[in-house]
Specification:
There is one protein chain. The protein has about 290 residues and is an alpha/beta fold. It is about 55% helix and about 10% strand. The protein folds into two domains: about 120 residues, 2-Layer Sandwich (Transcription Regulator spoIIAA); about 90 residues, no CATH class. It has a five-stranded mixed β-sheet with strand order 1-2-3-4-5, with helices on both faces.
């Protein structure tokens, strides 16, 4: 038979009492469990904070006597306007709590760190399914939004062709607004790391939003970027406009016609000399 001293541990962590129930408690008689409960309540009464953690992570089975002990501790905490968070990692133990309907009343998490965060967080009351989870989720979503907003600012500054100027500005401001909202939620519902993460997300979102607003007038006054082919065509058109003489000559000549080769004039051939044997005809005299 196990002794009551080896059936549980009473500790303080993060300003809260932590009561760890050990497997040996299942072998303790009912009368001893009642005495253990009274001993825990005495120690809990000396604690400054009315909040505490019940750690069941070392159990793989929990009987009805142990369930009654936890209910007794929970009621004592409620009388002091305190809160209780249960740590559990075993499916069988969770099934026992579900059968008793206690999972709808108690905050149940899977690690002691999350339990401490739940007790120290704002807005995490008894009866929530998880402690600090809302702060973590909001902080992660805020980080994603800030990342998208930062990419939009990069695309805007480097004029990426995949993203137009108007689309980049809209994406930058929209993602920054979402990051600001998620950061605010993380600050309100989280504690510790999620709360700090929420603050960083909010500051980053504000900075990106201000940068986007400041860049809007500059990009609105810029002429749209033309393709290289269009620039070449416009350059050729400008060149033709700058030389009106060429245009007039082309209009006068009209369409090209096949060229005729130039004509060359040869000198007349000299008269052939008379033959020696022939006598010239006598000239006729007038009568």
């Amino acid at each position: 038979m196990s002794s009551p001293e080896t059936a549980y541990r009473f500790e303080n962590e993060g300003g809260h009492a932590v009561i760890t129930l050990l497997p040996n408690l299942n072998d303790v008689p009912w009368a001893d469990i009642e005495r253990i409960g009274s001993d825990i309540l005495v120690k809990f009464g000396t604690s400054k904070s009315p909040t505490f953690v019940v750690d069941l992570s070392s159990l793989n089975y929990m009987g009805s006597a142990m369930v009654a002990l936890i209910v007794r501790l929970w009621k004592s905490s409620k009388e002091r306007n305190g809160r209780m968070v249960v740590v559990n990692q075993d499916e069988m133990v969770l099934e026992v709590l579900k059968l008793a309907g206690l999972n709808k009343v108690w905050t149940i998490v899977d690690s002691r760190g999350l339990a401490i965060q739940a007790l120290g967080g704002r807005g995490n009351l008894v009866g929530e399914d998880s402690g600090g989870g809302g702060g973590w989720i909001a902080g992660i979503l805020g980080l994603i939004s800030v990342g998208v907003s930062g990419f939009a600012l990069y695309a805007l500054l480097n004029k990426l062709p995949q993203l137009g100027t108007q689309a980049a500005v809209g994406l930058l401001l929209g993602a920054a607004a979402l990051g600001l909202i998620f950061g605010l939620v993380a600050v309100l519902k989280g504690s510790g790391v999620p709360k700090v993460l929420g603050l960083l997300v909010m500051m980053s979102a504000v900075g990106l939003g201000v940068a986007g607003v400041m860049k809007m007038p500059a990009f609105a006054n810029q002429a749209p970027v033309q393709d290289e082919g269009d620039s070449q065509e416009e350059g050729a058109a400008e060149d033709s406009k700058e030389d009106p003489a060429t245009d007039r000559t082309a209009a006068t000549l009209g369409p090209e016609s096949p060229q005729t080769p130039p004509t060359t004039t040869e000198p007349p051939a000299a008269a052939a000399p008379p033959d020696k044997g022939s006598t010239p005809a006598p000239e006729s005299k007038g009568e």
